[in-house]
Design a protein that fits this description.
CATH superfamily of the largest domain: Ankyrin repeat-containing domain
Pfam families: Ank_2
Distance between the termini: 14 Å
Largest sheet: 2 strands, antiparallel
Helix content: 40-55%
CATH topology of the largest domain: Serine Threonine Protein Phosphatase 5, Tetratricopeptide repeat
Number of helices: 15
CATH class of the largest domain: Mainly Alpha
Strand content: under 5%
Number of strands: 2
Keywords: ANK repeat
Number of domains: 2
Order of helices and strands: HEEHHHHHHHHHHHHHH
């Protein structure tokens, strides 16, 4: 019996591609920041390595604390509450001179505050950061990923929608593609990542906001539809096949129908 995934993709043609699988670098935590094996603190300009106070506040979504650290008000409040010891402690935890943190600070893999907020679905913080520094929306880490990539991989539809809305409000039209359609090192768009991980709600959101992403293939020649089928997410597949021009390309001359057959027989 033909599965529901097979029925969804049976109208697509085979596209010949070369398969070239690429592995993601595993990350590990160093001094309060997520660092890839190929990156290190010394590669980041002095004063721009994200301090632990700022990283933890962003990771946990403490918006007011993040803003306070960026403006210096948080340091002043803590100093007033606890005396100069708190001020000295905060300065000791910072990796930059002065009392204020900066939106330019990055982690070991060059992720910004917005990358962190997006990966954790902190929409209030995402909004505050983008309004203060719109360049964060198109910022790239060491694997050439934007905050949108991070939100899509983590399965956060709300964060994805927030980033799109903020980009349209704060980014010039000729630069908008650098936010919504950017590709990482393996050539994946945000839709590729959401489809690969079977995040149906994110795929549906992306297809509403930027359906043209379904046309794209990555470096290995693989389409979001193929990845959605391989993930086994009917929700993700249904969202993509609703766009008639979506690519069905997969590796080694396969297409999404092949993937559906593999899933059915697995």
């Amino acid at each position: 019996m033909i599965s529901s995934l097979s029925r969804m993709v049976c109208t697509y043609n085979i596209s010949t591609v070369l398969v070239k699988e690429q592995l993601w670098l595993t990350t590990y935590k160093v001094e309060g920041a997520w660092c890839g094996p190929a990156s290190c603190k010394e590669e980041i300009p002095e004063g721009m390595f994200m301090c632990s106070e700022l990283y933890l506040a962003a990771f946990e979504g403490r918006t007011q604390e993040v803003i306070g650290l960026l403006t210096g008000s948080y340091v002043a409040i803590e100093a007033a509450r606890n005396g100069q010891a708190a001020l000295h402690a905060t300065r000791a935890n910072a990796n930059h001179p002065g009392e204020c943190c900066s939106t330019s600070e990055v982690t070991g893999d060059r992720s910004t505050l917005l990358h962190i907020a997006a990966s954790q679905n902190h929409c209030e913080l995402i909004t505050e950061l983008a309004r203060r520094d719109s360049t964060l929306l198109s910022s790239l880490n060491t694997t050439q990923e934007t905050p949108l990539h991070c939100a899509a991989r983590a399965g956060h539809a709300d964060a994805v929608e927030a980033i799109f809305r903020l980009a349209k409000d704060n980014v010039e039209e000729d630069r908008l593609g650098g936010v919504t359609g950017n590709r990482n090192e393996p050539g994946d768009t945000a839709l590729h990542l959401a489809a690969r991980h079977g995040h149906g709600a994110v795929v549906e959101t992306l297809m509403k906001l930027a359906p043209e992403l379904a046309l794209e293939v990555n470096v290995a020649g693989v389409s979001p539809l193929y990845l959605a089928v391989m993930s086994g997410s009917v929700h993700a597949v249904a969202a993509i096949v609703g766009y008639k021009d979506a690519s069905a390309a997969g590796p080694s001359s396969q297409n999404a129908l092949h993937a559906a057959v593999f899933q059915s027989s697995g």
